[in-house]
């Protein structure tokens, strides 16, 4: 009789790719919610209603009413007695506008009206950085890694998905409620509560992130690891791309900034259910792995001990990857929070399309991250890929900072280059971690990397929001905002790029000395 050889569930191609798809879907929903507010910056920082026209221009309701009334008075027309309530879809209005430096009469038709929230750029920056506050200041990401290594994937994943969902609901409640002028800690109550929701969500999203990374290493180690990690990141980027591309349209259609968040919360609910489905597979994988070990007469897998953290803390390669992660991601995710408004004011892109240009970045990475991941699996050169990506990041931000080539097509080209950089570094960085740190400390290692990365994700938006308010906002003599000069904020992002280049070079040198294998292929022949 032929002897049956016991196999792990992860040895089945179908099973491991199915597991990957399920957990990647959960992560995709999380990424959608993370970036859903970025295209709404202009709406959030405008007071009162914002009117959108069919020609894709927009104006605040108050300023539109005064322009229409001025036009009527100047042309001896009967006063339209326009009120904010009368501004509705399909209404046609005539007023004077400056076009190419000339005063002209324009006739426009309203396509939609949405409520602005009147936040300052500082408040917007504070809110955007909230994603990392609990992770960083309450050390929750650090503890999350220990919980993951001690309590396991299923417990930690269910807990973190729960946090994501709860945080999303709080954020939605804050954005859909009018708190009037109620202030807390010198900021509007709405900003504080939305930030609290985002902070709880961010804690859940990051702990889910490390859990998903550990799941993928568990199923794909020694197989198509970098491709699998790349595909997970690619699916996550679909979430970011949909958020950047669709969020403003949803807010305009529904007339309120809270609706995109509500849709995200509903999607997250489905993501939560899909993680529960994965838990069934995870249980089966553990049972099959135990059976294999027993058949091969191997002893029980050694559990995680706190003392094991020493190995992580003492590894120079680990710290270089961590610092590279901090600098590189500080130059990308926080940038995305401000990129839509950059497109409007530096490249003169109509607000309705402005979110589409930053959305190109995640779209590009959807295809390229798995391609570079597969390249790393088969050919290697991980450290080199990280150097090239970091150089590209720096060049991109220098180009955004310089006061030249203010054409929309140039912004598109530069954004595509950023998309390539944003595929190169993650596709090489994440699969490099298991080459430096063994599996049983991997949860804690990813958690520490994410922890340090979150310091950037939390602080950089606060810094940029403040810099925009104090150094980049252009005002007329009455104090009204007339535009923005993005040179200083973009120079700050370029500095992060330069740091990433230096660190990635140091990593390459350290790899040559210590032989982590970063330049070698991942797949065992
Ligand atoms: N906007 C989502 C932030 C996710 C941060 C997360 N810690 C991370 O780095 N994920 C990997 C990636 O490349 O997105």
UniProtKB/TrEMBL annotation:
Record's bilayer topology term: Multi-pass membrane protein
Domain Major facilitator superfamily (MFS) profile as annotated: residue spans: 317-525
Leader sequence segment: none
Coiled-coil region list: none
Alphabetized UniProt keyword annotations: Lysosome, Membrane, Transmembrane, Transmembrane helix, Transport
Membrane spanning residue stretches: 14-33, 130-148, 155-175, 187-213, 225-251, 257-280, 318-336, 356-376, 383-402, 408-433, 445-468, 488-507
Subcellular localization, as worded in the UniProt entry: Lysosome membrane
Top-rank lineage group of the source organism: Bacteria
Catalytic reaction equation(s): L-lysyl-glycine(out) = L-lysyl-glycine(in); L-histidyl-L-alpha-amino acid(out) = L-histidyl-L-alpha-amino acid(in); L-arginyl-L-alpha-amino acid(out) = L-arginyl-L-alpha-amino acid(in); L-alpha-aminoacyl-L-histidine(out) = L-alpha-aminoacyl-L-histidine(in)
Chief place where the protein resides: membrane
Quaternary state and interactors: Homodimer. Interacts with lysosomal protein GLMP (via lumenal domain); the interaction starts while both proteins are still in the endoplasmic reticulum and is required for stabilization of MFSD1 in lysosomes but has no direct effect on its targeting to lysosomes or transporter activity.
Similarity remark: Belongs to the major facilitator superfamily.
Name of the protein described by the UniProt record: Lysosomal dipeptide transporter MFSD1
Species of origin: Phocaeicola faecium
